[in-house]
């Protein structure tokens, strides 16, 4: 399965300089947030495959949800047998619909224990913010959630895909990182994943 993960910025390759057929071999698109609905609608239309998304911390600026896409924010969705747990948003550093304290994010996760148990875990953890100590930064807006790290350690998903940490910030944040059992993907701009 070939997966395209996108986050935070409109990709030149898949939007501004789009060439017919460039998305033909994509089986699934994952969006980690902070992308305009029009962009996600373009991707799902051109690729002709499912697109699963979570909200980013700036998505409260969007006036509507993207059409033809699957919102996994605060849910566990099954797409062609692939179990995707979605938790959008970032650490609260100002008022915003998709910003949470550590306690609030833990409560969101607690509400998902039954779907996680029913599906016997999940294959992909899809978030906007990173996990604490994995690709996060020291400042509050870019701090990672400790509860995400706990989820990774407890359920050992194949992939943890996040956005929010722009690689053009001047910090050395890798696009792919390995933990004991999980590959961590920073989907800023875009990243291809072969599952």
Topology:
Layout lengths: L1 E6 L4 H5 L11 E4 L5 H11 L3 E3 L16 E2 L3 E5 L2 E6 L2 E2 L7 E2 L1 H9 L2 H6 L5 E4 L18 H10 L3 E4 L13 E3 L4 E4 L2 E6 L1
Q: Share of helix among residues?
A: 10-25%
Q: What oligomeric state best describes the polypeptide chains here?
A: single chain
CATH secondary-structure class = Alpha Beta
Largest sheet: 6 strands, mixed
CATH fold call: Purple Acid Phosphatase, chain A, domain 2
Shape: globular
Q: What are the segments in which pLDDT stays under 50 over at least 5 consecutive residues?
A: none
CATH superfamily: Metallo-dependent phosphatases
| Beta-strand residue percentage | 25-35%
* Total number of domains: 1
Q: Measured on Cα atoms, how large is the radius of gyration?
A: 15 Å
Helix and strand composition category: alpha/beta
CATH architecture: 4-Layer Sandwich
State the strand order across the main sheet. 5-6-9-10-12-11
Number of strands: 13
H/I helix tally = 5
For the terminal residues, how far apart are their CA atoms? 5 Å
Mean pLDDT: 94
- The string of secondary-structure elements, in order, is EHEHEEEEEEHHEHEEEE
């Amino acid at each position: 399965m070939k997966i395209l993960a996108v986050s935070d910025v409109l990709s030149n390759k898949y939007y501004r300089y789009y060439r017919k057929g460039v998305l033909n071999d994509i089986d699934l698109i994952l969006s980690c947030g902070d992308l305009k609905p029009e962009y996600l609608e373009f991707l799902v239309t051109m690729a002709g495959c499912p697109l699963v998304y979570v909200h980013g911390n700036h998505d409260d600026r969007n006036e509507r949800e993207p059409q033809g896409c699957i919102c996994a924010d605060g849910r566990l969705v099954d797409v062609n047998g692939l179990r995707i747990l979605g938790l959008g948003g970032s650490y609260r550093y100002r008022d915003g619909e998709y910003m949470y304290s550590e306690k609030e994010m833990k409560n969101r996760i607690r509400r998902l224990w039954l779907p996680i148990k029913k599906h016997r875990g999940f294959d992909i953890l899809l978030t906007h913010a990173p996990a604490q100590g994995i690709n996060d930064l020291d400042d509050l807006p870019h701090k990672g959630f400790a509860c995400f790290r706990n989820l990774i350690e407890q359920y050992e998903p194949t992939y943890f895909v996040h956005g929010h940490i722009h690689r053009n910030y001047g910090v050395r944040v890798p696009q792919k990182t390995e933990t004991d059992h999980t590959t961590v993907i920073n989907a800023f701009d875009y990243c291809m994943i072969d599952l």
